[in-house]
């Protein structure tokens, strides 16, 4: 060994460091201190700014990103989500009927609690469904979800009072669909990484049920009556759930840290999910803010577009068709934005979608030119709101480790759920008298909340890559 090398050696115990290695360590420390674009959080460590890489935090070798088994899971997820998104998008058709019949003497602001409780339970139950999914796998979580979701629909068929509807539809179906939605969406992340946007879009195309369910109700209400029609809807959901149950499969033993999960009790896993330290990460906090305000607009439009159409002179039958048209556009909105999100970036797409929704409200809906313009609005908005729903999991997953996705998705929607709980009671206060002027006030409120949501989405994107417009993010 020459003298130069021996001078650069320092021995401590059994470890030996050369002078060159020490210099490399110092250089690395210096780079870390000077890199102001690097963001540290308790949950995730990613690079932002010019060096941002959307997939750098994952081991791509763990994900099949295709293959017959992976796409079978996507199919199973889509079929299961038909019972979740399909019923969710049929809310307006249910609301129109019960408001004019069983609850005709109840204020519209009071009946709004049925659907706000449903949406609150649907989203907030994710804090339980996420840990259950991580701990027990998808099938054990789907069983109680299916029983509550479909059982609640059967119960709704025989409701006659406001309290009955809140318990059967709001609580039972809401909790059941919440137990189903989180695992059915999270399982896609176990199989896909770079094609996750496309796979998620196909899975959420299960919202195609939102076309057929309203039309089915429109056709069967006059022939069979309310109770038998709702029983048929519940039976269709049972059949779809059973098919989905047979097709889906998780990969939690490959993706998740099972030893760490099993060391904790269920309550500890739930508390680990609801970790508000996530909000120390600016992109995540701003994204959740955008989702929160976005829900104000979404729930008001999909619930009251039918009664608004009747106020404008449409028949009840045509109002159901209007809902079906909006949901038809939503099927395309679940797939197309996800396809382009894999090409131009997930945050880029959700910003464009949210902006289009705001413009459609102020340019097409509020002025109300004629019924044709109203149909155009439902197409544009239906495409947008479905796209925003489908882009939510892929935007969250882009700034999350796959093993953390279920938890962070549940945490985000636990906060967003409170927006659902209050949005309809607040928005429905504008339309108790159900006049055109009242509805215009609600439309302005919905449009403003969408603009606020768009601003938050832009700020979240900016927190990741700054003001760079041409960047995959």
UniProtKB/TrEMBL annotation:
The keyword Membrane applies. InterPro entries: MFS (IPR011701), MFS_dom (IPR020846), MFS_trans_sf (IPR036259), Proton-linked_MCT (IPR050327). Pfam families: MFS_1. The chain crosses the membrane at residues 68-91, 112-133, 162-185, 197-217, 229-248, 284-307, 319-340, 347-366, 372-391, 412-431, 443-464. GO terms for cellular component: membrane. It is a multi-pass membrane protein. It is found in: Membrane. GO terms for biological process: riboflavin transport. Residues 72-473 form the Major facilitator superfamily (MFS) profile domain. Belongs to the major facilitator superfamily. Monocarboxylate porter (TC 2.A.1.13) family. This is DEBR0S3_06326g1_1. It comes from Dekkera bruxellensis (Brettanomyces custersii).
């Amino acid at each position: 060994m020459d003298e130069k090398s021996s001078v650069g050696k320092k021995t401590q115990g059994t470890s030996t460091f050369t002078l060159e290695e020490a210099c490399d360590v110092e250089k690395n420390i210096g780079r870390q201190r000077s890199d102001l674009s690097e963001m540290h959080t308790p949950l995730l460590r990613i690079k932002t700014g010019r060096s941002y890489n959307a997939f750098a935090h994952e081991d791509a070798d763990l994900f099949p990103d295709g293959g017959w088994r992976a796409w079978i899971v996507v199919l199973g997820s889509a079929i299961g989500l038909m019972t979740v998104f399909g019923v969710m998008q049929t809310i307006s058709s249910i609301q129109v009927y019960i408001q004019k019949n069983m609850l005709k003497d109840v204020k519209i602001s009071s009946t709004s609690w049925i659907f706000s409780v449903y949406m609150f339970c649907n989203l907030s139950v994710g804090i339980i469904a996420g840990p259950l999914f991580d701990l027990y796998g998808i099938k054990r979580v789907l069983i109680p979800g299916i029983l509550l979701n479909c059982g609640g629909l059967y119960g709704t068929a025989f409701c006659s009072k406001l309290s009955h509807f809140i318990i059967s539809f709001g609580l039972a179906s809401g909790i059941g669909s919440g137990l189903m939605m989180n695992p059915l969406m999270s399982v896609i992340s176990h199989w896909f990484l770079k094609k996750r946007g496309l796979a998620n879009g196909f899975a959420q195309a299960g919202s195609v049920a939102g076309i057929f369910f309203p039309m089915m109700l429109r056709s069967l209400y006059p022939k069979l009556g309310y109770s038998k029609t709702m029983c048929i809807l519940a039976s269709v959901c049972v059949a779809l759930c059973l098919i989905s149950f047979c097709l889906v499969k998780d990969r939690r033993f490959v993706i998740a840290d099972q030893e760490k999960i099993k060391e904790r009790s269920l309550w500890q896993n739930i508390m680990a999910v609801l970790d508000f330290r996530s909000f120390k990460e600016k992109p995540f906090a701003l994204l959740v803010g955008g989702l929160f305000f976005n829900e104000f607009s979404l729930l008001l439009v999909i619930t009251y577009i039918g009664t608004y159409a009747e106020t404008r002179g449409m028949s009840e039958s045509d109002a159901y068709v209007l809902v079906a048209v909006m949901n038809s556009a939503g099927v395309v909105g679940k797939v197309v934005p996800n396809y382009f999100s894999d090409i131009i970036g997930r945050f880029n797409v959700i910003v464009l979608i949210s902006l289009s929704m705001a413009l459609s409200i102020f340019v097409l809906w509020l002025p109300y030119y004629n019924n044709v313009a109203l149909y155009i609005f439902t197409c544009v908005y239906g495409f947008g709101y479905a796209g925003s729903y489908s882009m939510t999991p892929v935007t969250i997953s882009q700034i999350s480790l796959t093993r953390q996705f279920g938890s962070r998705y549940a945490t985000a929607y636990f906060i967003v759920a409170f927006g659902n709980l209050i949005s309809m009671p607040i928005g429905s206060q504008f339309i108790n008298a159900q006049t055109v002027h009242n509805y215009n006030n609600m439309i302005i409120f919905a449009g403003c909340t969408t603009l606020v949501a768009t601003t938050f989405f832009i700020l979240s994107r900016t927190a990741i890559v700054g003001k760079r417009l041409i960047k995959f993010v």
